[in-house]
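Thread: quick sanity check before group meeting

JM: Hey all, I'm pulling together slides for Thursday and realized we never actually wrote out the predicted structure for the chain we discussed last week. Dropping the sequence here so it's in one place. If anyone has concerns about the input, flag it before I start.
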Amino acid sequence: DDAVFFMFNPFVEETVNKFLDMLDASCAQYPRETWFLYASPVHAAVLENRGYQMRYRHKIMNLEGMILCKS
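JM (edit): ok, ran it. Output follows.
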């Protein structure tokens, strides 16, 4: 099954990296497609640097959101 995570800029960058380390280890053991629905994406570059591809990005005034995926 795919994994889907919703984040609204929940953590500092260090915590996002630690979470992604654990998620990468889990996906190595149990391969699956992983999706992030990310509102107010302060640390989007962290996800993109780890191979997540942006599928959608939209900004309205001061509100921004994106959808990223990694297979």
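AS: nice. Residues 13-29 form the longest helix (17 residues). The CA atoms of residues 39 and 65 lie 4 Å apart.
JM: adding both to the slides.
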